Amino acid sequence: MRKTAFAVVAAGIVAAVTLAGCSGGGGGAAADDGVLTIAVPTAPVSLDTLKAAGGAPGTWYETPAYAGILERDDSGEYVAGLAEDFGYVGDGNTEFEFTLRSDLKFADGTPLTATEAADSLTYFAETTTGPNRAMYAPLSFEAVDDLTVRISATQPTPLIPWLLTASSLGGAPISPAGIADESARASNTYGAGQYVLDTDSTVNGDTYVYTPNENYWDKDAVQWKKIELKVISNTTQQVQALKTGQVDVIIGDASIAGTVEGKGITQIQSPALVMNLFLMDRDGTLVPELADPRVRQALNYAIDREAITTAAYGDYGTPTVQPVIDGGPEYGFDPSIEEIYPYDPAKAKQLLAEAGAEGVTISATYLSYSPADTTVAQAMASQLAEVGVTLDLKPEPDFGSWVNDLVSGQFASTLLTSAGDMYTSTQFAWTPDAVMNTFKVSDTAVNEGFTALATATGSDIESAAQALNRTIVEEALDVPVSSLDAIYIYNADVVDLGFIGTTGDLAPVSAWTKP
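The chain above was modelled as a monomer; its predicted structure follows.
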């Protein structure tokens, strides 16, 4: 595999499409012609990297056209991208520098120097509304010469290398023309990546077409004469399209995993995500009872995770009470707390009674286009009803609708998968400026634990991550349900489609190659 950036797996949005009649047998018709065709279940929130959804398929619409300052190779190491030299300066994880390659250009021919890179990073950090906004908030950027940018952080952060990858969205420079025209970025691309959006061939909400960028610095890395992302919301239609060669790659789930067969068809999977009921209203703005940790703990006791996981994910999920997967030391997974919330409806009722919270109603949104999400949402609502809690569900037909309701402040909770490591999850959900912390709840123990993790080094990382994990679990800041696999299915005409190291992070679309 060529050295690439990685993608954080997360949610996307959906739009329907009707496939044309199928013909032929076996996969690979598109790739055989130098065209990579990918089925995606959702249309993009926006092509604007400042507003795009993270993960797969969210970043798949951006990473072909926006190159990262750094990349990540197949072992998980950070390597040169647009920058050829990089690293932390001194100790403490607060200063970082990178040096760009010389003679770089954006797709529109504009030079890409340290000034343009620093301007783009600053603009992203100050303006983004995307899922990674909290991670960029403590950073400032300065061009110290023609090719070198210095990054300064107001607090220690070990994530600066990842924040400089295209997968983080902010780490992929936007051209001056793109920065100057916010409205245009929603439907066009302004990057320095291998490809550019072909606006003449693109049909919004249906098909997104990318063609080679003649100004890309590494011509040999441009593998495809065309990349097409086709929006197909129906899983059965996706499978049929893969089998008949209309598409080369689909995102799998537990409903089809292990069942898609055909010449040259391959399935890969890896633990990657955690399904959570995020309790955003922990200060009790909408639901006063949620400010009481006994109520939040009761919700955790009321859930039969094993039954829900079996129904929604089968062999591709594992019941869990932790918001992290069982990964490396930085993930913070702690086997000793797995039994902290056994399925115990009687205990749940007792805690609710002690808190005076019998008959509480909690509003919740979920992505109804996902069969697994629907199964989890309905099962949780049924089980919570047995202890006297009403989970008032609102199904969201697409990710855009979900985002609108998230930021409206009208819903106390939401069901969503999240990345499974402690640092990213905390900045995603529980720090005061986290994108999922819509009510701006500030928890002293979480803030202190997060600072301890951000400054930890060596063998202290695991203990700091586990301590923060225990705080979140014991205070019941959310209701984790299942650790689940990311699943991808593709045909033999696509290679280098794989996970980064031992994580569930997938190599970006621009890294996938022909045999």
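The domain at 271-485 is CATH 3.10.105.10 (Dipeptide-binding Protein; domain 3).
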